[in-house]
Amino acid sequence: MKTALLALALCSALALQGCSEESDTNSQASAPQAAAAEATSTNVSSSLRISGFGPTPVKAGEPFNVQPNQQAALWVRVDQPLDGTDAAVYLDGVKLQSYISGNLITAAVPASLYAKAGQYALHVAGSKGKQSYQSGDVQFIVQ
Q1: Under a CB-based contact definition with an 8 Å cutoff, are residues 88 and 122 in contact?
Q2: CA 68 to chain centre
Q3: Which residues pair with residue 121 across a beta bridge?
Q4: Is 14 left (phi over 0), alpha (psi -120 to 50) or beta?
Q5: Which of 1, 54, 58, 134 is the most exposed, fewest CB within 10 Å of its CB?
Q6: Could you give the CA distance from residue 12 to residue 141 in angstroms, rounded to a whole number?
Q7: pLDDT over threshold 60, residue 23
Q8: Of the listed ranges 61-65, 81-85, 120-124, 136-140, the one predicted with least confidence
Q9: CA–CA separation, 15 vs 23, rounded Å?
């Protein structure tokens, strides 16, 4: 079971890595999104900032970055590697099944979270040992 999850995580990271370069440019082009990506830390000694995410925007009810298991997936790039941490992507307050590869996190998105148009808060949170961290919110747009 762990081998299957690891393989899925690797496939997800590799599949989404390929689409991240084009989308990364688009997501960084917006000044409001860049400002919203500023992070705050739950521990004064560290910080975490979202430097890109995607895809954006997506269409309500239409799966995006469809994975082999038919789930939609998104990617988030942060300003520091998170390997060895307990990190996850949160969308509209819901913790998503997340996979970490360096500073890239991919996450499966349930259909209920993109069923309706709107702007939904997206952030990364986690911990390593006794140190906790959380990025600031960015807006994930569903049209």
Answers
A1: no
A2: 18
A3: 139
A4: alpha
A5: 1
A6: 21
A7: no
A8: 81-85
A9: 13
